[in-house]
Each structure stands twice: as structure tokens, then as C-alpha cells.
Fold:
Amino acid sequence: MISIAEKIIKHKKAVVIAFVIFALVSTVAQFFVSVNYNMVDYLPEDAQSTRAMEIMEKEFTAEVPDTRVMVRDVSLQEALSLKEKLSAIDGVGEVIWLDDVADLKTPLEMADAETVENYYKDGNALFSISVRSGDEVAITDAIYELIGDEGAIAGEAINTASSQKMAGTESMYAAILLVPIIIFILVVSTTSWVEPLFFLTAIGVSVLINLGTNIFIGEVSFVTQSVAPILQLAVSLDYAVFLLHSFSDYRKKTNNPEEAMQLAMKKSFPAITASAATTFFGFIALTFMKFEIGSDLGINLVKGIVLSFISVMVFLPALTLLFYKWMDKTQHRSFIPSFTGIGDFVVKLKIPSLLLVFAILVPSFLAQSNTAFTYGLGEQPETTRAGSDFTEIKEAFGETTPIVLLVPTGDRAKEAELVQELENLDYVTSVIAYVNMVGSVIPPEYLDESITSEFYSENYSRIIINTNQGTEGDLPFSIVQKVEEEATKYYGDQALSLGESVTLYDIKNVVNKDNVVVNVLTVVTIAIVLLATFKSISIPLVLLITIQSAVWINLSIPYFTSSSLVFVGYLIISTVQLAATVDYAILLTEAYQHNRREMSAKKAIVKTLDEKTFSISISAAILSSVGFILWMTSSNPIVGSIGLLLGRGALLAFVMVVFLLPAMLLVFDKFIKKTTYKANFYEEK
Structure:
């Protein structure tokens, strides 16, 4: 480490210039990285809805109607004219309205009332349309221009467009709120006005390089774009704090800044490496998710941790030695409050702390396993145009969710039987297929291709089933199951279904399996790192119980408050919280072990808490601020839920490390001594 440090210090100007150039190039490169807002793209290739989508794109030209457009106070003729105008918008594919399911040449009173009211009710017309993926913003803007302020849009396209429009604004808003808060927290924790800028510059450069290197991936998910940069900043700021605090300590012992930095790099290297390793392996677990939004975020966070580690160990020492005189000129008195006495207070509460946590641990574990989950983006907030439009359409027409079935073509009698079975299913309002729209006795080859191409391709027949339920939940998922069961009865595994509710049903099935894999991998990999760090069997167990307790309590709160939780957020945070906050436990335990070799367990824990509580509180305050600001600024339910869980989780982890961990270290002191290699604990004579 000393020889590496010497080389970095010797070439400090070249190091700083190289990092600045990399950061500038990366800043430009990030604008060429596309952001994907389509959750379907992140399902595994063998998922049923993924295969169905690939087949439909290959076999049919028209896409699945996934968006509804409502226009108020129009006649039948005006509605038909609007349908033509909607169809003419570039990027709008299929437009389905009343004339596709009923003969408008006959009086509406003679048509099936329920069918009519799905499309035309009280002078309001409701169109089902498909929108080209990737151009949602431009297409929905064009639709709004056509239908005016009185019209409304609901569905996948407008949700995606709203998320895209808000993403940039919200990220900027989050940064504007966050940076001053972090600077304030860091100013309080240091004795120099400019030192926080050194921390933020070192980590900021690594964040920019991380964003820029995504150009080699080509595309990132909207979750990664929103969460990864801020999370990388929050999790890795500690590395910079470790190094510069160590540098400040050594400067009191030597007048040579370069020597002080060499010693600081050597001393802080094991602590920074251990901290980075637990976070690194925790995030590695996310890359094993089959639902690739998790693996996309995992890859970016792993890359970010490595880049932050390199930046702190290479760029920050060089930068500090170039400008350390600024730190000297901007010294201020210490604002650190005295934490003397907290150790005695915590020790007095050790038995109540243990009893309380272990009393709520089992209920918390059971509750977090039974939380009500959502799997998609859900409804947009009422304050947005998309949110108010959704409410308007729901009040006027109820909910409509289409399911598309693809079945082998050729046997129209079998197809007619299946369509009849589907029409009889509960919550199905209409079924659009060749056999009931045109007639099973009329051969398709006698009709114009523009009519038949909507229903038949060379190999498949397409059936659109409209339901009057939402896109997800027990009831919508049970409808998907029943539709798939009916199709399987006639066509076996050759029948494929797709649509938003089908996609979310597939996501549910995939992420439930991911949950077990990711959680086990996270715990096992972090346990191995802790085992290597402490050379102990018991200490990793104590640390994991401490942080995992905080995770379970955090994730159980939605159950006790009867609120649903976005499952992707739940899955990601169960890994991220453990990986990001186990550092608090490592910091306290390492200091305790050092003190325990010189004094009794009680005195060691009191001294450790008096000295380290502030450092841990700074890390927790930064991570918690990041989480709560993400939650407050994001209209995206997945990003918002990750923020809320992260903010709350950091505070809970802090409480557990300060109260539960010391209690366990004291109670299990003899067991820890026996199960730790070369513990060398102090023994009173």
C-alpha cells in the first residue's frame, strides 16, 4: 500500500487531471445512454408474456391496445371522425371503438347495452388504442392536442410518458434539496468549511464516471437512472470520510503532509476495503435477479462502488495534497456535540433492548412476508394530469383491461368454442375475434386482407378479451389465470397470452422466486466478508441479526399500516439496506474489539459508544436524507417506495446498531471470545 501511495502522491497532478478528463468525457457520454421505461423488457426471455410479445410482433402488424382515450360530449359521427384522426397520428396503431364490436347502421337501442356502454356512454366516447413503444411522450402530446383539455388519457402509454417527463425534473429537484443537506451534515462532522467539498468532489467524480460508462451497456432502466447515482453517493461517502479523518489525525503527528497521507492511506485501507466489500457483495446479489430491473440496478451499483473505492484511494489523496492548504485556511471550531454518557445509558438498557427487539422480531418477520404487494407502476398521483385523467375515465366507464390471446390458426370451430367459453367468464365485457366479429362460416380468404389481418396471421389467430377490472391484484390475476386455463384446455401450451395484467402476473411469479435467491445470496456473501474481516464465527452472526432485524421491522410497517408496497422496491431494499447499513455495525464492532483487548466488556462498550455514535449518526443521517428526499421528490411509485424504505431503514439500522448490537456484544461476550480467532480479550486479574 505504501509503494502505491508513493506513486499516487508523486504523480498527484497527473492523477487529478486524468480523473477530471474522465469525468468530463463521462458527463458527455451519459447523454447517449438511453433510459428504458418499459418493464416488459426486463422480464426473462422464457417468460410467457415475453414469448407472446415476440410472436405477436413477428406475426401481426397491429399492437395490443394498452391505452384508453376519452372524449366528452360527442355524437356517434363525431366519435367516428375522431377515431380516424386518432388512427392518423404517427405511432398510434390499433384504434378500437364501438363500430368494431357493433353494427352502427342499426339503432343503438337494439344493440347489447353492456357492449355499447363500454365504448359510448352519456355522450362520452372511449377509444382503446395501441401506442408505439419508445415514442410515448410525442404520441400522447399529439393525442392531447387533438382531444383538448376536456379529453382524458389513461393506461400504459400515458404512465410511461409521465414518468419520462418527470424523471429529469425530479432528479434535479432531488439534487437541489440533497446537496445542501449533505454539505450541512458534513460541515458539522468536520473542522474545515471546504473539507465537505473534497468528499463530494471525490464521490461526485466517481458517480459521473459511472453514469458515463453506461454507454458500454447502451441502456439502463428508469429505476437505475433515478436511484443508482444518489445511492452510490450516499453509500460511498463514508470511504472519503474515513480517509480524510485519518489524514487529519496523522497531520497532528507529522509536519509532512505527504507522509501523513501515506500513513492515512495505509491505515484506512482495511476499513474502507471491508466497508466497500460488504456493500459490493450485497449489490452483487441483485445481479442474480431474473427480473432484470434488479440486475440492471445491481450492475450499476457494483460498478459504482468499485469506482468510488478507486476514486477515494487514488483521486482523493492526490486532490487533497494539491489543495490541503485550503483546508488549513478554512478551519472552524468543532460543532460535534459531546456523546459522553450515551454508553452508560445504552448499557443500562441492554436487557430491555434485547427483550423488546426479540419480542417484535417474529411478528415483524411474519408481517413482512404477508405485506400486500403491487408489481407495476400503479396509478399516477392525483396531482398530475395523468392521475386526474385516470380518475375521470374510471368514474365515467369503470376500468378496462384487455388481454390478448394468441392461438394456433386453422380450426375455426375450436376457436368459436373457446371464444364462447371466454365470453361466459366473469368480469369479461367483450371478446373480439374473427369467429364472432365476422363469422366462423365465412372463409378469411374471401375477405379483404385489411379485415383478416387484424385476426389472423400465417400461424396464429388473435383474440382480444376486454375485462372490467384493473391491471393487478387478486381479482385481475385470477382473471388472467382463468383465461389461460380455458386456452390451455383447447390448445395446450401452444396458447399464449399478453397484455399489461398478464405481464404483471408474470412479473409477480418471477420476482417471488427472485426474492429467495437474492436474500440468501446477500446474507451468505456478507457473512463470508464479515467472517474474513473479524476471523470469528459469532461476530458475523451478531452483526447480521442486528441489521436483518432493522430490515424486517422496516419491511413489516406497510403490513401494520394496511398499505401496499411495490414489490420491486421491497426486493431491492431488502438487499440494499443490509449491504449499505452493515458498515455501521462493522465500525462499532471493530472499535469495540480494539477496546476490549485493553479493558472489560462493559468499559469497552461504553468507550466505543461514546466515541463512535457520532460517526455512525453522520452516515445514517446522509443515507436517511437520500432516501426520504427520493421519496418526497419522485412521482414514480417504484423509486418513491425505494426512497421511503431506504430513509426509514437507515434510521432503524442506526437505532439497532446503537442499542441492540452493544447489548448482544455484552451478553454474548464469553461466547464471542471463545469463537473468535486470537481474540486476546482483556481479563481482569
Q: What stands out?
A: The domain at 1-32+190-334 is CATH 1.20.1640.10 (Multidrug efflux transporter AcrB transmembrane fold). The mean pLDDT is 87.
